[in-house]
Amino acid sequence: MKTLESRLGYTFANPAILIRALSHRSLNSERKQGREEMAEHNEQLEFLGDAVLGLLISDYLFQTYPELPEGKLSIHKARIVSAAHLVEVARKLQLGQCLLLGRGEELSGGREKKALLADALEAVLAAVYLDGGLECAREVVQNVVMSVPTAHDELSELKNFKASLQELAQSKGMPQPIYVTVRTDGPEHSKTFVVEARVGTQWIEQGQGPTKKAAGQMAARVLYHRMSGNLKFTASPVVSSNHTG
To answer: Mind telling me the catalytic residues?
Structure first.
């Protein structure tokens, strides 16, 4: 337990709740048959942990990437909280070694079963939340769940390209980027904005999105990648043709 606490970066005030989070229901089945005292298993904690994890990842994405539309945020959240990603996190924690299993589950390779690992991780997050509160759970999520490459890969797509484009222009001694809304399409309740990102008069690209901020980020992303790819550009690059990319 101490080793797992070290990996989590959190010490439990009530170790019993961590033991419950690691206890699979197969323990109960065998203890019931042997008329031993039944132990609490982790299924209810798994239910709570799923909600805690979803809240904390949603809050992180909402606070960190305010320019992204709801659909994009939902896609990235779904990938980060997916069973596949949680299994990778559980393996990094070597959570399988800590599971408390019935003999049958042990013999069937339960410590390596993906479903058991993902469920146990959610239960452990719930245990941290119940033992130390939401902020402690937030720290564990950010330091453990978000440290696994899958999360970094997903979040790299959410890069603030406006800031990156500004830094690139500054490093080349070029004018700061400006953003112009060139048109708005669609009905009032479902508009699509088209925004143009400009660096000087020669580097221009367009992006579109459900908000001006989202469209601006898309335009910045397209222009950033095009300018970054032209490593030898000077003050006289080829003029871009305006396209939505």
So the answer is: 50, 122
